[in-house]
Amino acid sequence: MNVPDAMLAIEITQAGGPDVLAPCSVPVPLPGHGQILIRVAYAGVNRPDALQRSGAYNPPPNASPLPGLEASGHVAAVGSGVTRWKVGDAVCALLPGGGYAEYALTAADHALPIPEGMSLREAACLPETCFTVWSNMVMRGGLKAGERFLVHGGTSGIGTTAIQIAKALGARVFATAGSDKKCSICTELGAEQAINYQEGDFAAAMKSVGGADLILDMVGGPYLPRNVRSLADDGRLVQIAFLSGAKVELNFAEVMMRRLTITGSTLRPQSDLAKARIAAKVEQHVWPMIARGAFKPVMDSEYPLDQAPAAHWRIEAPGHIGKIVLKVAP
User: Fold this and answer.
1) How far apart are CA 137 and CA 81, in angstroms?
2) CATH of the domain at 253
3) pLDDT (tens place) for every residue of the chain, 330 residues total
């Protein structure tokens, strides 16, 4: 595969709203030891991209300053020490950054084969959400078959992924969403009950079924004490984002008396080894779910690469359902 010296990319010109995203020409990166270079076909658009754009989520050291944490495409070049992949292989991959570009680098162990029968468009939606959901819901949260699981933001990319994977694991799944239409989508995906948070009290709803054994939350802020009330005794809360704020007053007496666990993580700052371990678990457990039809990414919309600002307006609007992608390759 012939790799050019320069490529089209989308850069963050300054911290701000979606309009600070602009096309630029930058050198094509070269793969180092253990890395692969991907000719990007589609790039996933995620909340962390919007946070980075706004100045609230800086990339880790040595990562590309360009946004984009997942992509699909074909291997364009391999670095030394790479044995699994060869030039031309179709892959989807978790990226440290740089997905909004014609070429992107990642660790070879963070790439996965495209599931059989799945398009590159759909596959671009898998890495960020699957890595996040599996590592937090299962590896950190310890979800087991038969447990009651609540996910907030049930129609987000994370939410639609978590509902389907939790259902496939045999859990009883509950979700919150902001409209009756979105609640219907949650139940269609496998949720036993979806609570419209605009109208109902999700804590009361969960208590009525015995409380949640595990909650996956990206809202934070005022949801934290309500999540505590929603948990069953010995329940676990895993926090993965704070869309409504990271600080809140909480009475820890209830946490102690009811033996609750509050934990959380972010994916991007973790080590390459930790991400490689997550990748292996995702391929081992989630890819078979895809093969048997138990999980499929929910697609919201697609935009050309040069319309990245429109994609960011879309992901920050309340109406989107599922995943948004940028089409990069012609």
Assistant:
1) 32
2) 3.40.50.720
3) 899 999 999 999 999 999 999 999 999 999 999 999 999 999 999 999 999 999 998 898 889 999 999 999 999 999 999 999 999 999 999 999 999 999 999 999 999 999 999 999 999 999 999 999 999 999 999 999 999 999 999 999 999 999 999 999 999 999 999 999 999 999 999 999 999 999 989 999 999 999 999 999 999 999 999 999 999 999 999 999 988 888 888 889 999 999 999 999 999 999 999 999 999 999 999 999 999 999 999 999 999 999 999 999 999 988 899 999 999 997
Same domain, 86 and 147: no
Please tell me whether residues 136 and 252 are part of one structural domain.
yes
Residue 287 located in a structural domain: no
| Spatial distance between the Cα atoms of 197 and 195, rounded to a whole number of angstroms | 6
Could you tell me which residues are beta bridge partners of residue 78?
36
- Final residue of a domain: which of 264, 288, 306? 264
pTM of the model: 0.95
Domain interval for residue 60: 6-126+297-327
Residues 166 and 208 placed together within one structural domain of the fold: yes
